[in-house]
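Today's session is about reading a structure prediction critically. Students often jump straight to the picture, but the first step is always the sequence itself: look for stretches that repeat, for charged clusters, for runs of hydrophobic residues. Only then move on to the predicted structure, which in these notes is written as discrete structure tokens rather than atom positions. Here is the chain we will use throughout the hour.
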Amino acid sequence: MLVRLTMICAGATAATRKGSFPWDEALEPRSLTLAKAMRGTLRRADRVWTAPALRARQTAEALALKASVDPMLADQNYGRWAGKSLDDVQAQQPDEIAAWLTDPNAAPHGGESLADVARRAAGLMDRLIAEPGHTIAVTHAGVIRTAILHVLSAPLAASWKIDVEPLSITDFRSDGRRWMLRACGVIAPKPAKPLSI
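Below is the predicted structure for this chain, in token form.
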């Protein structure tokens, strides 16, 4: 039995481009253009899911995917930090940021811890391992990072060492017994620029 999971990271927003903790905002225009350029590059899927956030739903729509919302794909809940820049939070709450970056169980912002996100990602993958066929999931960098760590049996502290770019693709395969990471960080095609001589 072949099981395939393709995770696509939602496109960038104005907040994420500025290094802010995301909130439920729309994609930036450039991300919409890049996502539309990816149409037709994805293989047929038996299931297509998206995270509930507006940016994930807009990414799926721009990719011309008819996706149903799955709450397991939701981005980390950043609580009081949502919409604020990392620099501002660091300046006002340095101890809380330090705890958040070093303790996967810490949630000083009043939202979810990294461990909470990892449990959701693992639960999703455990559910999917028994589903033959191909699933495409439009989700967020944190969910994708924790899915990678789950497959590799790596510690959650390694999450901060994985860069998942907006609109990148991460592909997993399973034989129904175990997951394997097949491809990671495949970037969306960029519109061609004319060569200048």
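Discussion point for the tutorial: The chain has a mean pLDDT of 92.
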